[in-house]
Amino acid sequence: MSSLISVNNLSRYYGDHCAVDDISFTLEKGDILGFLGPNGAGKSTTMQMLTGNLALHHGSITINGYDLIDQPVPAKSQIGYLPEHPPLYRDLSVGEYLHYCARLHRVPAQRIAEQAEIAMLRCDLQDVSRRLIRNLSKGFQQRVGIAQAILHQPPVIILDEPTVGLDPIQIIDIRKLIRELGSDHGIILCTHILPEVQAVCNRVQIINEGAIAYSAAMKQYQEKRYHIRLASACSPAQLEAYPLFSKVEVIDERHFIVDSDAEAADITAFISEQQLGLTHFSEYSDSLESTFVSIVSGSGVGADNSTAIAGDVAA
Amino acid sequence: MMVLDIAYREFRNLFLTPLAWVILGVVQFILAWFFFSSIEVFFSLQDQLTTMSNPPGVTDLVISPLFRTAGIVLLMVLPLLTMRLISEERRNHTLSLLQSAPLSISEIVIGKYLGLLMFITVVVAVISLMPVSLYLGTTPDTGKLIAGLLGLFLLLAAFSAAGIYMSSLTDNPMVAAISSFGLLLLLWIINTGTSQSGASGEASPDVLGYLSMHTHFSNMLRGIVNTADIAYFILFILCFIILTIRQMETIRLQS
Predict the structure, then answer these.
(1) What is the mean pLDDT of residues B38-64?
(2) Gap between the terminal Cα atoms of chain B
(3) Of the four, A6, A180, A198, B114, which is 20 to 30 A from B186 by CA?
(4) To probe the interface with A, which of B14, B97, B249 has the most A CB atoms within 10 Å?
(5) Does B17 touch chain A (CB under 8 A)?
(6) Can you give the pLDDT at residue B32?
(7) Residue B238, CB-side half-sphere exposure with 13 Å CA sphere
(8) How confident is the model at residue A96, as a pLDDT?
(9) Could you tell me the residue range of the domain that residue A251 belongs to?
(10) CA gap A275, A278 in Å, rounded
C-alpha cells in the first residue's frame, strides 16, 4: 500500500528566486497534515504544484500511485482542492456551481444530485443553495469553496486556509468536519493559524523559505502543560517533590509552568489541598508556537530541529 | 463528455450576464436597419434592373451586402465576448478549478471554444432569419444564401479563435478585447493596398491577399465555396487554438 501523496525533491523557481527548495514528504491515509509557514514561505506554491496548477521544475509527485507528470488526469482525479482564493463563478447559484464541479470531476450523472446534497449538508449550505454566489457573504463563499473540494469524495483533500472569513462557530464546525473527513481521507491543511493545526492535525510540518524546517507528529504537543500562579512564593524544588508534576519551569518565584499527565481538575484540587494558594491556572499550549517562532525567526532551535527532521523525513 | 460540459457551461454563462443579450440585440437592430434600407434600394432600382440582360438578383443586392456588414459589425463586437474567456478566469482565480479538475488543458480550451461556437451559431441563425424572410415575397438564390451563411459562420469562428488566444495572453479583459480587435482589423484590411487590381479573385494570388480574411469571405459571399477558402479558415482556427493551448501551458510553467 503506497502513500496517498509522496513528494520527492520538489523544487520550483520564479525566475532566479527559489520559492520551493528540494522538499520531500508523504501523506498517509488518515493523516491530517498541518502545513505551517509564514507568508511567502512557499506553502501555496507547493499546494499549487500538488494539484497541477503550477508546473514543477524538479522532483516528482505521486498521488495515490499516479505520477502527476506522466498521468496527470488520473492523478488529479484523486484530489479535492480549495485554493487560497476559492474558485467561484459568481454568476451561478450554489446548486448550479456544485453540479458543474461534480461534472468536471466526473461524478457519474445519476449520483451528482446526491453528492451535491451531501456536500451542501456537510458545509451547512442547504439554505442558500438557490442563491447566487455573488450575493453570499465571504464566510458562505468560503464554505462553497470547501463544499467544492469535498464534493466528489476524493482520497486526498487539500485545503489552503479553509477558515479564512468564517465566524467562530463556523470555524468550530469546519474543524469538526475536517476531523471527520480525516478518518477516511488524507488531508493537507495549509494555514498560518497555529491553534487550527493544534485543534485538528495529527502531523505538522513547518515550511520556511521554501524548505521544510520542521516535521513532527502532533502527539508531542498534546502532553499537558499548565500555567500556574501561586499566592505565596514557592521554590521549584518544592513543587518538583510532588509526583504529580513531571517537570517544572520557573518564570518567577510565584509563577510556574508545569508538565503533568493529570487532568486539570485533579491538579487544581491537589494545589488547594496543599494550601499553596492558587491565583491563576490555565492550560499552557503554545509549545508549537514557540517552535514556529524560533524556526521562522531563524534562531538556534530551528537549525537544531532541521537536522533532526532530515532524519524524520528520510525515515 | 467533459469538453461538452465545459462548452455548455460557457454558453450558459454568456447568457447569465446582460452582455450576450445586449450584443445580440444591438447587432440585430443595426443589421435589420441595414436590411430594410437595402430592400428600399432594391425597389428603387427595380425598373433599371428589368432592362438589363443579366441583372443581379435580390441575393446579390440585399443578402450579400447584409452578410458583409454583419461580418464588419461582428468584427468589432466579438472581441467583447471573447475577451473574458480566459483572462477573466485568471483574474477571478477560477482557472484553478478547471486546472485541478481531471482535465487536460486542450480539453479546457476546446471546451471554451465550442461554447463560443454555440453562441455564434445562435448569432448566425438569428441573422439568417432576415434573408429567409425574403422567401415570402421572392425566390432568393438558395445556394448563394447557404454559401454566405457558411462563410459568415467560418468568419466568426475564426474571429473567436483569434479572440480566445488574445484572451489567454493577458489577465486584463480590456487589453484582450482591444488587441483582438486590432489583430482582426489588421487581417481584414491587410490587402487593401494590393487588392485593387486583383479584385476579381484569382487574378493575382499575392501573399497579403491570401492572408486577408476579407478575400476568403468575399469569395463565399459570391457563392463560391472553395476548398482553399475553407482550408484557410480551418487552418486559421486550428493555429490559434493550438497557440492558446501552448500559452496556457506557459502560464502553468511561469506564473
Answers:
(1) 84
(2) 29
(3) B114
(4) B97
(5) yes
(6) 95
(7) 6
(8) 93
(9) 225-283
(10) 8
A101-118 core/surface letters (b: 16 or more CB in 10 A; e: else): bbbbbebeeeebeebbee
Instruction: Decide the pairing of beta strands A66-67 and A255-259.
Output: unpaired
Residue A274, domain member (yes or no): yes
The string of DSSP letters for A99-124 reads HHHHHHTT--HHHHHHHHHHHHHHTT
Under a CB-based contact definition with an 8 Å cutoff, are residues A131 and A125 in contact?
no
**Residue of A12, A47, A53 best to disrupt the B interface, most CBs of B under 10 A:** A53
A-chain residues near B5 (CB < 8 A): 100, 103-104
Answer yes or no: is A50 within a domain. no
The per-residue pLDDT for A286 is 57
B5 has a chain A CB within 8 A of its CB: yes
φ, ψ for residue A3 (rounded to 5)? -70, 160
| pTM score, whole prediction | 0.82
**Average pLDDT, integer, range B201-210:** 66
Distance of alpha carbon B136 from alpha carbon B138, whole angstroms: 6
Asked if the Cβ–Cβ distance from B17 to A106 is below 8 Å, we say: no
Q: How does the average pLDDT of chain A come out, rounded?
A: 83
Answer with the one of A112, A138, A153 that is the final residue of a domain.
A153
More confident site: A250 or A27 = A27
Total structural domains within chain A: 2
Residues of A within 8 A of B249 (CB-CB) are 55
Contact B78, B160 (CB under 8 A): yes
Is A72 a domain residue? no
Which position has the higher pLDDT, A301 or A227?
A227
In this prediction, residues B160-180 reach a mean pLDDT of 93
Edge-to-edge strand ranges of the sheet holding A278-283: A247-252, A255-259, A225-230, A278-283
Pick the residue with more confidence: A218 or B200? Answer: A218
Are A165 and A88 in contact, with CB atoms under 8 Å apart? no
**Domain of residue A269, CATH code:** 3.30.70
Find the CB nearest A76 among B6, B94, B102.
Answer: B102
**A87 interaction partners in chain B (CB closer than 8 Å):** 92-97
Q: Do the beta carbons of residue B191 and residue B209 sit within 8 Å?
A: yes
Q: Is residue A257 part of a domain?
A: yes
Q: Give the confidence band of B194 by pLDDT, cuts at 50, 70, 90.
A: low
Q: pLDDT tens-digit profile of A253-262?
A: 778 877 776 7
Mutate to test the interface with A, among B6, B16, B96, B247 (most CBs of A within 10 A): B96
